[in-house]
Amino acid sequence: MYRAPRGTQDILPQEQPYWRYIEARAKALCQLYGYERIDTPIFEEAGLFVRSIGSGTDIVEKEMYTFPDRSGDSMTLRPEGTAPVCRVYLEHGMGSRPQPVRLYYVSPIFRYDRPQKGRYRQHHQFGVEALGEADPLLDAEVMEMAWRFFTDLGISDFSILLNSIGCPQCRPAYLEKLKDYYSRLAPRLCPDCRRRLEQNPLRLLDCKQASCLPLGEDAPRSAEHLCSECTSHFQRLRSYLDALGLPYRLDHRLVRGLDYYTRTVFEVQPSEEGAQSALGGGGRYDGLIQELGGRPTPGVGFAAGIERAVLALKHLGTPVPPLPRPQVCLAYLGDGLEAARLASALRQKGIPVLMATGSRSLRAQLRQASALGMSYTIILGEKELASQTVVLRDMAQGTQREIPLADIATALASL
């Protein structure tokens, strides 16, 4: 028997209300803040991600789904959402639009990672990107959107972690201090961190291995080694967050897993003790578009995992509205020709109808309608056809009445 590939899941009909609810809240939020929807291809040239994410990151080295197409070009299934949006910004000349350009997406993401609860090799993200403005007020806007997204869903038990990792001017000196600190502890580092010590020392702070976790507590703090511009940006951001009443706490170990981040980084973490899986996160990426061949263009964004939001809603027992579905079933006796015509006519008038099929008896059709939770059943048989009437049965009350065939649409609409 074939099964879904490891690290993927089927989103069954009974799960769909959670997904549609989350997507609806995301859409409403973005409309409130003036963000427009964008959809990018599910795969891109591999070089886009190698260049943007960074060749020394775990995503590029271990997690990307990369393959040659028939032309020999190297393609990669989208492992994150920001780089494709930046590619769109460049390719379609969005720099000529009023800045910042505010965009959002809901899309699948692919990473070859160890599957675990809430973490899949194909998962889905809701993300926002604001490009073309360096004002820390935009950072605060994106962070407020992240906070509102989860609170609007009914999720409140989380923390926003915040840090600044500086810019290309001040970060090199900080990285040297970080390397010097961890070099003295090299024998105690896990194998991955020994490699990171040379290739990507900032990621040392992000290691979750038991041997490395306590070492980061006394590591040099990036926020204490910022240049004057980064210091001013961070102070202004914090003043905006305080003015908005947005709760956050500083975390000097927060660096995120992508090389393109500059200055602001933040994560939304569940408050449960020992929780390690972020609900979402983001930050500023002022050098990314320039790295991809464009002019210096600041940007800031945020992404949330939809699967993790679904888990959080289920954990909290949050009710979500059911999806619209037919409340009327059409049961019939005979060959079904006239029943099909009636069902089609009702649907053309905007009345959802579920039509019985097969050769079940009328009693079996009524049982099926009851099992499906139908509110009403239209019964059409030879007697009704002869008199140009139908029987309308109220499934909850168990009562029924005869209605002229020409009046059934009006009767259903009134119900």
Q: CA-to-CA gap between the ends? A: 46 Å
- Give the tally of β-strands: 16
Using only C-alpha atoms, the radius of gyration works out to: 28 Å
**What is the 3D shape?**
elongated
Which ranges are low-confidence, i.e. pLDDT below 50, for 5 or more consecutive residues?
none
CATH topology of the largest domain: BirA Bifunctional Protein, domain 2
Please, what is the average pLDDT? 91
Number of helices: 14
**What is the level-2 CATH architecture name of the largest domain?**
2-Layer Sandwich
Order of helices and strands: HEEHHEEHEEHEHHHEEEHEHEHEHEHEEH
Give the structure's gist in a few sentences.
The protein is of the alpha+beta class and 415 residues long.
List the helices and strands and how they pair.
Layout: H1 16-33, E1 36-37, E2 43-45, H2 46-53, H3 58-63, E3 66-68, E4 74-77, H4 82-91, E5 101-110, E6 122-131, H5 136-153, E7 158-164, H6 171-183, H7 191-199, H8 228-244, E8 249-250, E9 262-270, E10 280-284, H9 288-291, E11 299-305, H10 306-316, E12 328-332, H11 337-348, E13 353-355, H12 362-371, E14 376-380, H13 382-387, E15 389-394, E16 399-404, H14 408-414
Parallel strand pairs: 1-5, 7-8, 12-13, 12-14
Antiparallel strand pairs: 2-4, 3-4, 5-6, 6-11, 7-9, 9-10, 10-11, 14-15, 15-16
Helix pairs in contact: 1-5, 5-8
